[in-house]
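Possible regression after last week's pipeline update?

I re-ran a chain I had predicted before the update to compare outputs. Posting the input and the new output here so someone can diff against the archived version. Not blocking, just want to make sure nothing changed silently.
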Amino acid sequence: MNILLGLLPFWDPQIPPLGIACLKSYLNKNDLDAVCFDLNTKIEFRNIYDKYFSVLNRVIPEDKKGNIYNIGNQVVRNHLTAHLHVESQEKYFLVLGTLVLNTFYTKLENDDYIELINIVKEYYVLLEKAIRELFLKHKPTIFGLSVFGDTLGPSIFAFKLAKEINPEIKTIMGGGIFADQLAPNSPNLEYFMNYSRSFIDKYVIGEGEELFLAFVKDEIPEDEIVLSKQSSGNYLSIDELNVPVYDDFELKHYAHVGFYGARSCPFQCNFCSETINWGKYRKKEIDKTVSEFKLLNEKYNNQLFLLTDSTLNPVVTPLSEALIKADFTVYWDGFLRADKHVCSEENTILWRKGGFYRAKLGLESGSQRMLDLMNKSTSVETYKKALASLAFAGIKTTTFWLFGFPGETEEDFQKTLDFLEECKDYIYEADCNAFNYFVSGQANSDDWLQNSTSSALFPEWTREYFITQTNVLDSLPSRQDAYSRVNRFMEHCKKLGIPNPYSLTDIDKADKRWKSLHLNAVPALMDFKSNTYIDECKDVKQYTFTSEVDTEDFEFDL
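New output (post-update):
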């Protein structure tokens, strides 16, 4: 058998596709192999992406752009899907006009629509050419795609094309889309499965290694279409897994190499799908994580890693201690929960010495009332101390913010803007989005409907074009108010000089700002592109730190 696994544009190529790299590793462990590809690193697709957003940047008014690359992705994703289903130019204009109006609250001119449509046409010409070349070269008998919300339309196109090229091919779909847009028990999943059964044979929801291997070995009954471990709860022991295999990817195109030390999450924030998708929280033994860091470092000659764990808090201290003692140096990003442990400069200096490079912090709001509603189990005062402590150590602080969560008031939002002003020098970058509600798949999906109702964002007739329907809660604040707050937040960040970099040029500027603010600033991202071995972290000094903020007690028991 010939197995071909891939990820289609558009998806942010910060790391090579971790999911299919893990599948390849698991197949190798069982004496099988697969060829992996990621078309996101192809410059021709990146050019298409840039052209599309250049149009959006030109035609969307300044006061409605908000975080345009996050919000604009919702337009791109639905446009790429709708393009496969429209019958006439008149209908096309109506579909695209409805999409842009309900997303950016903006009406475009006919010439703008024509320009966007032509860009998408160009995209699909390139995609068909790329898929046909892959099939001609590898002659797959099994074709699998890791699918996210932003890649649904292209994945539909590729699966249909695969069946056209080889009607006997077996097709299988997995990926993060099953954690949100196509969450189990959602109307979207039922609709999508009825729509796609002629060109997708199996759907893998959640953790996929064992299920995919069984599919490859033809051990799945023909009538078992949806493959998932959610009902059984029989998840893998991740200590028994080998490292992801990235042999098929050109790693020079990625900022980091992806890796993980745990799966799932020990917390259940109300808007999150992590525990729904991954089940029980499991973490590796620290020694195994360190040895795998070394293996990946030596095999791929890469020092910068992104750990995809939902939170590093349970492991960041012992992992740092072990890496300080190691005979090699790596730097690593990851998601961190801003709790009591992060407020200690002794801890953050220790982590910095261990190679901790960037903390990705889901702060969400500067209002204590909102944090309590979100079940964040932390405080605004702890956030302030945590940011200062991380910045003192020179660790980059990437902050994520959420607006429009049910119950958020203008006063709550203003507290977030005030928080930014107070902590601006401790924030490396600020990214944000409006609250997204899903009928199924979030920890609090059912509870929200006890006090509210939900409705479709787009008219029902658009479902046959977009395939998935976006739902919104009929509660305050409205979706339009949430997006207005996103725009005001971004403007405030710009005024304060807090970056939100999306290009290498912007990242370089952000790195220079960080270095000017903090004596212990980590090396710039571009330093890792110079083929120079970097090992400055173990020599970082602890300067005097004077900021003091009271924090509540919060302990891990994992």
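Follow-up from reviewer: compared with the archived run. DSSP finds 20 helices and 16 strands in the chain. Marking as no regression found.
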